[in-house]
Amino acid sequence: MRKHMDTVHMRSPEGEVKEVEATTEALTPLMVAGWHQVPAPAAEPEAVGPKPAAPAGEEK
Amino acid sequence: MANVNELMEGWGFGKQTAIGTANTSTAIWRQTNLNTKPWAKVPVNEDDRAEIGKGHEFPTQLFRSHYNMPPFELSKYASSEFLAWAMCFSMGNVTLTGSGPYTYVIVPALGATNATGLELPYFSFVQQIRPGGSAVLDEMLVGCAVKSWKLSIKNSPGRASAMCSVECMTTGQYTSPSGITLPAVSTPHEFNAGMITALTFNGINYLSGGSAKQFVSMEASWENNFRPGFFPGSGAQDGYQIQGRFEWGDRAFAVQFVVRVQAGSTEYSNLINLTTGTATFTMARDANNSFSMLIQKMGFSVAELGNTEGIVTLQITGVQLYDATNGLVTMTIITPLTGICQ
């Protein structure tokens, strides 16, 4: 039904966030399992680190 | 004096941030309503007639008790905007995507994972007659919730062939004057039965194939069965206790439909064989306005032979079964309006 494929960020009850296709088929099982929509995270190109002290947005 | 035709109604298409925090005007739309009654406020007083020690059985004093707010019906022709609103506020788990038109995917929230437990989103309701210095009526009811809805589809011409009515509850909290300037009446994108593009129940396609032209009518409904919301600390208005929450009870999702009987009709065999399957109902007005109800697993509990205006028909009562993976039902609505229930 959709013209192009949108994506949406969803968070699991345990806190995992992932980007999924915004289709009824993809969203339904996640929502039924308790996943909720969350805003897209700000640009986060930084690598994983124990304590990311450096702000990611300063390279403008 | 005022004619009821002067009544203007608006309510939050966005959700309140808390049950006692009213919508701001930017999240309130103004809509028409086929229900011509205003939402009544009913403060209840009690007396001391049951107390002995007065020397007689008669009451001697009045006491303020509580606001007993009756349910209020929003009765409208089905539109993409109103259906999105009704489904979002009645079911609670909403995902919004797109950049115009917007797609709302909605499933019933579960208490275990819902951020607000057993509570659904709240909205404010504004009703006004000649607002301003000499208003006949100007108030905003705060903390309203959708108790139930009914979607009716029938063989008839025009907008009345696709109707949606929503029953709402409210806490008793209100502000008067409302302080809200209602916008112009919005023009929703309405559906009619001619726009149905998918109509398959439990493996039977009533839109094409051998069962085409069999369909007569359908009624789907949702009931949240709210528990009373009076509790210690629930609040007061004008000295009357108000409700401080609406928690869903045992929710019920019902679907009934009527179809014409023809040779080889499979409704009976589906019922007797306990056959289950998905049910898909879709109305599409254009690329920007559609409504789709996907019931994940439907069986039939009753198939009753009768007649509808002289045609032999079956009235089917569906049983909507909960699927472990896909749940009970998914509503997908495309509409030009963003921010519904956000």
Task: Kindly provide the radius of gyration of chain B, computed on alpha-carbon positions and rounded to a whole number of angstroms.
Answer: 23 Å
- Biggest sheet statistics of chain B: 17 strands, antiparallel
Multimeric status of the protein: heterodimer
Shape of chain B: globular
DSSP summary, beta strand count of chain A: 3
Low-confidence stretches of chain A: 54-60
Judging from the principal axes of the Cα atoms, what is the shape of chain A? flat
**Main sheet of chain A, how many strands, which sense, barrel?**
3 strands, antiparallel
Greatest contact between two chains:
A-B, 19 and 24 residues
Summarize the amount of helix of chain B as a percent range. Answer: under 10%
What do these coordinates show?
The complex is a heterodimer of chains A (60) and B (342). Chain A is an alpha+beta fold. In chain A, strands 2-1-3 form a 3-stranded antiparallel sheet, with helices on one face. In chain A, a hairpin with a 5-residue loop joins β1 and β2. Chain A is flat and about 30 Å long. The C terminus of chain A is likely disordered. With 342 residues, chain B is mostly beta strands. Chain B has 2 helices and 21 strands. Chain B is globular, with a radius of gyration of 23 Å. Chain B starts with 7 loop residues before the first strand and ends in a 7-residue tail after the last strand. The model of chain B has no long low-confidence stretch (mean pLDDT 96).
